[in-house]
Batch of 2 targets.
Target 1
Amino acid sequence: MAAGFNFGDRLQLTVRHMGEVVFDQRLLFHKSFGFAEKDQPIIYNNELMRVGLAVNQGSFVEQYDLGYGLEWQVEVTH
């Protein structure tokens, strides 16, 4: 893929809120959140071919107490 990683890879996801790291884990990257075990987080391509974050049968935002807006930064590395 153009980004340098493929479905099935584990990617490092770091989320910062106002510069402070609030989430830092290696996650599976795959075609849909259905490839993750129940209650496990995943990085996936949504129906618009954009990167999405999910928890299989849950809520990524609620489970990890995250938000959105200009004060949030998301970094994905291989």
Target 2
Amino acid sequence: MEIKTKDISFLALGWLFPGLGHVFLKKYWRAGIFFACITSMAALGLLMGGKIYSFQTENPLTILAFFSDLGYGLLYFFSKIFSFGSGNLERVTFEFGTAYIAGAGLLNYLVALDAFDIARGKKK
């Protein structure tokens, strides 16, 4: 089966904003549930004082953290523009918040791939 540019656009939209690829596929319930869950995870992570990592080469684990945070798409770019998500090491919940933000990014990768599979006809 050939990969079409249109199918890739659903993947990109889903990565950029959680559930957006599903909205364009007219899967509104899925889009709403994915948006609510992923956004809630990221918001809770930020409220807990979690950190959104930038690309750093000193430690290999921060590279992995960067790619997981990049998974949310717009949240990563907004965090760099508006300077939030810098993390608060003094808070007891810092590690949990950072894990929630990373989890939201990784989950959004899976949701974007789900939109891609639906667009290709591999899934309903």
